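Backbone description:
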Amino acid sequence: MKKAAVIIALFISSISLGFAQDSKMEEVKIKTSSVCKMCKNTLEKSLSFEKGIKNSNLDVPSQVITVSYNPKKTDINKIKKAINETGYDADELPADQKAYNKLEDCCKKDKPVHVD
């Protein structure tokens, strides 16, 4: 009976440790060169495939993307690089030129921010 109680206690503690990993997520805000809802969709979809990123949300008017990530699996520089490789600036880092050239015309940096 004691063995069963110990096994159950170990099982429950291992489950709670699995849930505790979510609390280790970190959040970063990065200024981008995005200008529209299409940019929002493109960036958020691209980042959803990056290892360690839980979610992202781009605020189009402020051009700031908020990214929740696991610091054991990725870091801020990798996130910025992923944004650059999608065709957008990330803080001080300029967009990858080839990726930028593939963006739709409405997503180019020279366009004003628009939320239509």
